[in-house]
Amino acid sequence: MISSQVTLTSAYLKTPRAAAYAGIIFSVLLFAVFALMRLSVPSDPLEQGSWLAGDTTYVALAMNLVPFSGVAFLWFVGVLRDRLGEREDQFFATVFFGSGVLLLAMLFAAAAAIGAIIIAFHAAPEAVEHSAAFRFGRALAYGMINIYLVKAAAVFMITTSTIAIYTRLTPRWLTIGGYFIAFALLIGSYYLDWSILVFPLWVLLVSLSILWDDGLS
């Protein structure tokens, strides 16, 4: 009787195959978020906020896509942990999961800051534009994305690549590439605004490799 209950529970807790597509969904959504933001919001954090008076439809759409990309990323992390199984080391698992959570926290906080700026501007345009509150919110979102989120993403990539070396979670070329991309983010993210896009590209490649392995197995 006990054996049948364990088998039934394991069947219900098995990771659904659809979860393997989570990384691809996250990559596409994050690409869309940053592309839509760049179409409307200048990259310079010291700009005067003239974009607020224009059409903010793209920005609003990007902010609405952020929660979906965050959920997809959590599913992606779950897929990686499921593939590791008993091979998962507690130390690396803590850094791996913690950096992923920090990454999402920065992404959500930056989206909330941009969303708050837009709402406040529509409520009182004269009071918000060129105000100290606007400059603070704009600088806060910029710092979270271009400094802290990028660094958390680099730590996530380094940890994942380290785990992959010992467990053969991904192809070796992708593992080595993860190190190079992570160090490039750590050094050059402040100077290259579009450097953050290499992270979802890396996630996309990892997800495709997982799907490829599942198809061969």
Mean pLDDT: 80
- Number of structural domains: 1
Would you list the SSEs in sequence order as H and E?
HHHHHHHH
| Gyration radius, in Å | 20 Å
Number of helices: 8
End-to-end gap = 32 Å
Number of strands: 0
Overall structural class, as computed from helix and strand content, comes to: mainly alpha
What percent of residues adopt helix (DSSP H or I)?
over 70%
Return residue spans where pLDDT drops below 50 for at least 5 consecutive residues. 4-13
Question: What is the molecular shape?
Answer: elongated
Portion in strands: under 5%
Show the helix and strand layout.
Layout: H1 2-13, H2 22-40, H3 57-84, H4 90-123, H5 125-128, H6 132-167, H7 172-188, H8 198-216
Helix pairs in contact: 2-3, 2-8, 3-4, 4-6, 6-7, 7-8
Protein model, in words:
- 78% of the residues lie in helices and 0% in strands.
- By secondary structure, the chain is mostly helical.
- It has one domain.
- Helix 4 (90-123) packs antiparallel against helix 6 and helix 7 packs antiparallel against helix 8 (198-216).
- Mean pLDDT is 80; it is low at 4-13.
Question: Summary?
Answer:
With 217 residues, this protein is mainly α. Helix content is 78%, strand content 0%. Mean pLDDT is 80; it is low at 4-13.
Throw out a few tags for this protein.
single chain, 8 helices, about 220 residues, mainly alpha, about 80% helix
